[in-house]
Fold this sequence. Notes:
The protein is an all-alpha fold. The chain is built from 21 helices and no strands. α2 (18-28) packs across α3. Mean pLDDT is 89; it is low at 6-13.
Amino acid sequence: MRVSLMALVLVAAPCAALAQSDKDLKLCEAEDADDVAIFACTRLIETSEVGQRDRAIVYYHRGAAYWRKRDFDRAIADEDKAIEIDPGYANAYMRRGASYASKGDFDLAIADATKAIEIDPENVKAHSNRGLARGRKGDVAGAIADASKAIEINPKFAGGYIVRGEYNAIKGDHGSAFADFSKATEIDPKNGFDDFRLRGIAFTRKGDFDHAIAAFGGWIEIDSNNAVAYALRGDSFARKGDDARAIADASKAIEIDPKYVYAYRVRGFVYANKGNYDRAIADFTTPIEIDPKNADAYRVRGRAYARKGDYDRAIADFTKQIEIEPNDPDPYRSRSAAYAGKHDNDAALADNNKAVELTKRRLESGAPRPQ
């Protein structure tokens, strides 16, 4: 069993350094004050008397804080360092895998989660994370199996129910999905990121937007500088039809983190639904500038152009989406509709036929719709 970081420092540090080390340790391990945690962890790494092996724990916590801030490259770098120091540190593999999953590299995410499970078969987050990554690669049965194992290990871990509920829904078992989301909402939150976040997501999946807003609000009360919390609450406001509050929350998320693409997506959808296509297109353009390979950003911007009647730009965006995701039938359907809007019936028919072909191929393979 891993010894606590506090105990290790108390053994290693000289008396004069104990007070500052004690304070930094508590801040480094905090889950809802990421900038403070990063500063404290960095000071421990640079100035503390903790032994080299025990620095792995500090790197792990700093990497976790970077992950919560969506700085995935720095998170991976810190977990690399933790693993270099302590190759048997299961949580470092778990967190690095989560970072890879957040970047869309699901193969590396699965490999790291599997390594974490080999080291610690009871690592509930590794099971849940691997389930999510498997699901994103189309392995619905594997996703449900891993999420079920996470629930078996810890019946009070909401994330396991959310992952299993999502893939039960994709499988068509909506009764089980609703039961999973309901169970997740019954788990009392204890902190912001791992509890209020998951509780809010579960309420959103159930369509209970008032309770989702309340859950994300609880997270914001704990951490008022968290872009993810504001964006998720903004999404719930948007789903409820409260456009003004949705825009306000998404804008606050962007103010906190100008590179958080999901916040632009939330605000862009609100503008598009209000018929303000120019502002929607501007919001959908920013994620493309941040990541030119963001297929979803081309999809939503292309649809905004199409609704505006600018079919040439819509076609260009759907074409770009096809370049990134050549086996997805959806952009072919969207481009077909855009060609039809231009009265280019031959091109519209060709794209429609291609969409039918890809859909048939997907159904025959048993693969779900990409997430």
